[in-house]
């Protein structure tokens, strides 16, 4: 409907000249091939840009007729790109933008549709074309209505109504705002403001009758039926719906609105227990929905027919049930996309106000960056001071006690101290990178993601600091810490790698103690030295399984392998990140075994593919079950 109305506002003299030529060419080819193939063939042989523009527009419409919406949008974009590049027809650019806008609207892609409505309005203002500006506001209104922002929708409809009024006055023609009034009526209907909806629908209906405009008459009739149905006036609703059906045939309309009318009638008869009438109209609605690939009406009709046949014909009932379930699944997918697009789309502010807002935002970003830098400095200083104090303490003990037993204890304490330093530092590069990622998200106004990132980072930092003085923690806490770390790295690298954590349900993680941060270094190495050098990313899998009297923790990646990683390091690639040494982890396991009479161990497997090429690394840690 939007594009049909739009035709009233744009006349292109160039098309009047070129169209007969195109029709003649097309007629010769269409008898041999399909319309789409013929148009593509002509385009490939055409060198004249102005002809290509018209052909791409016709191709876009052909794709739209075949419900190939993505291809339709792509064709109109081609026409728009050629037109912009040569600056041939500015008015026609509006037409192509409006076509793209409407097809995106039909696809349910309201967010991108709003973007093209903005472009449409901007170009209309540049051309000082009141008709184009009115149409852009109309498009805005339709998008906002589907996104549920009814106030914004009405605001744009009334603005569009004023621009259309100016358009017709400037051409000394009677004002035609009928379609806009019907859009306003539909919005009031969704708001359950039935009186206002009735006023605008009746005005549009009278104009439609006076002009013998079938589109206006049909849409008005349907809305009047919907209003009465919503108010509970079923008999009045049926009268309007019964009037709609012959008018639909009379005016040779072809759209999915008929499906809504037929389904509404079927539901009224179902409520009245007139089941044969219900089935009659449901079958009509079902056929219309199949014709237009209308999942919403297909689901409603199939569900009604399933209920009708459920007690009389099992085979028919099952057939309609399967169709209803499939349609419902498709609708759920569409609804998820729609919900994801529900957002606020603010109008542009004046250039001076925007500059002030940008300056304020930049100042805030600087303050946040300074705050982050101070926080990092404080944390680093506290860690350094704590380590220094511990070193001084144990150094004094060593100087005072020369006995072999005390020396051995010191060596054990020193190993513990190194482990604490590893836990506390958590790689300064990692902390700086996390903070920079948060800053970057804030600067690009991805504040929701920044909050999630900062919350996860703070949880990880708090967990590490809380466990800084604990030589051992539960395996549960260790796994949770690793999950937080891996989640942060995944967000920071834009989900370049996948990760999975699986734990045997029979294992009580909280009853098992392990050296703190014994697993995390291997995950870090898997990400940085295994996965990140790969162009297409990869997967890190952490699994915890029970094996006899042992708990087996496996860190598996499908990265480049240690051999190639070592070569890269030798060449200087990836030098910004230092691998966590395996020997330190092995020393910590040995110390834990000695202190607690355990038998933990570490195993490293270099994975190979069928050709013997490196295809990742597998680390296996064995812990004793308590």
Structure at a glance:
TPR repeats lie at residues 53-86. With 626 residues, the chain is an alpha+beta fold.
Describe the SSE topology.
Layout: H1 2-6, H2 13-30, H3 35-45, H4 49-65, H5 69-86, H6 90-107, H7 110-126, H8 130-147, H9 150-170, H10 178-190, H11 194-211, H12 214-230, H13 234-250, H14 257-271, H15 275-291, H16 295-309, H17 314-341, H18 351-400, H19 404-425, H20 428-443, H21 447-466, E1 472-474, H22 475-492, E2 497-503, E3 513-515, H23 520-531, E4 538-547, E5 550-557, H24 561-571, H25 582-596, E6 601-608, E7 614-624
Parallel strand pairs: 2-4
Antiparallel strand pairs: 1-3, 4-5, 5-7, 6-7
Mean pLDDT metric: 82
Which structural class should the secondary elements be placed in? alpha+beta
The count of helical stretches stands at 25
Strand order of the largest sheet: 2-4-5-7-6
Q: What is the CATH topology descriptor of one domain? A: Serine Threonine Protein Phosphatase 5, Tetratricopeptide repeat
End-to-end C-alpha gap: 72 Å
Radius of gyration: 35 Å
Using the coordinates above, name the CATH class of one domain.
Mainly Alpha
* Main beta sheet: 5 strands, mixed
Q: DSSP strand (E) fraction? A: 5-15%
Into which percent range does the helicity of residues fall? over 70%
Shape category? elongated
CATH superfamily of one domain: Tetratricopeptide repeat domain
Low-confidence stretches: 1-33
Instruction: Find the count of extended strands (DSSP E, 2+ residues).
Output: 7
Instruction: Please state the second-level CATH architecture of one domain.
Output: Alpha Horseshoe
InterPro entries: Bact_2-comp_sensor_kinase, HATPase_C_sf, Sig_transdc_His_kin_internal, TPR-like_helical_dom_sf, TPR_rpt
GO molecular function, one term: phosphorelay sensor kinase activity
Keywords: Membrane, TPR repeat, Transmembrane, Transmembrane helix
GO cellular component, one term: membrane
């Amino acid at each position: 409907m939007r594009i049909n109305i739009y035709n009233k506002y744009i006349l292109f003299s160039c098309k009047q000249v070129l169209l007969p030529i195109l029709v003649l060419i097309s007629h010769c080819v269409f008898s041999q091939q399909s319309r789409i193939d013929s148009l593509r063939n002509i385009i490939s042989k055409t060198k004249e840009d102005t002809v290509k523009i018209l052909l791409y527009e016709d191709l876009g419409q052909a794709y739209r007729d075949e419900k190939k919406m993505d291809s339709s949008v792509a064709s109109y974009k081609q026409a728009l790109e050629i037109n912009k590049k040569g600056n041939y027809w500015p008015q026609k650019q509006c037409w192509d933008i409006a076509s793209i806008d409407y097809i995106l609207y039909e696809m349910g892609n309201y967010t991108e549709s709003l973007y093209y409505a903005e472009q449409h309005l901007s170009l209309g203002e540049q051309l000082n074309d009141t008709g184009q500006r009115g149409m852009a506001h109309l498009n805005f209104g339709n998008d906002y209505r589907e996104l549920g922002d009814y106030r914004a929708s009405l605001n744009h409809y009334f603005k569009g109504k004023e621009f259309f009024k100016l358009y017709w006055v400037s051409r000394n023609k009677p004002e035609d705002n009928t379609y806009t009034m019907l859009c306003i009526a539909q919005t009031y209907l969704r708001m359950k403001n039935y009186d206002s909806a009735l006023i605008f629908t009746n005005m549009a209906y009278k104009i439609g009758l006076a002009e013998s405009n079938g589109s206006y008459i049909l849409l008005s009739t349907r809305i009047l039926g919907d209003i009465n149905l919503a108010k509970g006036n079923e008999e009045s609703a049926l009268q309007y719906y019964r009037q709609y059906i012959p008018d639909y045939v009379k005016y040779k309309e072809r759209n999915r609105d008929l499906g809504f009318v037929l389904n509404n009638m079927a539901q009224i008869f179902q409520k009245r227990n007139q089941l044969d009438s219900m089935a009659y109209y449901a079958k009509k609605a079902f056929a219309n929905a199949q014709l237009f690939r209308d999942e919403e009406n297909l689901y409603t009709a199939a569900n009604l027919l399933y209920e009708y046949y459920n007690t009389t014909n099992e085979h028919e009932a099952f057939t309609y049930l399967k169709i209803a379930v499939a349609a419902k699944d498709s609708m759920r997918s569409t609804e998820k996309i729609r919900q994801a697009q529900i957002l606020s789309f603010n109008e542009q502010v004046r250039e001076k106000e925007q500059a002030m807002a940008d300056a304020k935002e930049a100042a805030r970003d600087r303050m946040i960056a300074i705050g982050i830098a101070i926080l990092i400095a404080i944390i680093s200083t506290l860690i350094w001071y704590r380590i220094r104090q511990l070193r001084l303490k144990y150094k004094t003990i060593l100087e005072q006690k020369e006995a072999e037993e005390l020396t051995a204890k010191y060596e054990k304490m020193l190993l513990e101290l190194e482990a604490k330093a590893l836990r506390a530092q958590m790689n300064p590069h990692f902390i700086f990178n996390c903070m920079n990622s948060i800053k970057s998200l804030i600067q690009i106004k991805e504040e929701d993601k920044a909050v999630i990132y900062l919350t996860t980072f703070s949880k990880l930092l708090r967990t590490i600091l809380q466990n800084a003085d604990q030589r051992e923690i539960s395996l549960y806490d260790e796994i949770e810490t690793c999950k937080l770390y891996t989640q942060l790295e995944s967000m920071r690298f834009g989900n370049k790698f996948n990760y999975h954590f699986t734990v045997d349900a029979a294992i009580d993680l909280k009853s098992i103690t392990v050296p703190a941060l014994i697993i995390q270094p291997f995950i870090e190495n898997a990400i940085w030295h295994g996965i990140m050098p790969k162009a297409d990313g990869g997967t890190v899998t952490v699994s915890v399984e029970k094996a006899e009297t042992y708990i087996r923790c496996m860190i598996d990646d499908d990265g480049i392998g240690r051999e190639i990683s070592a070569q890269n390091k030798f060449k200087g690639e990836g030098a910004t990140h230092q691998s966590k040494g395996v020997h330190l982890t092995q020393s910590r396991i040995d110390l834990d075994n000695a202190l607690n009479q355990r038998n933990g161990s570490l195993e490293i497997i270099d994975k190979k593919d069928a050709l013997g090429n490196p295809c990742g690394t597998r680390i296996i840690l064995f812990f004793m079950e308590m």
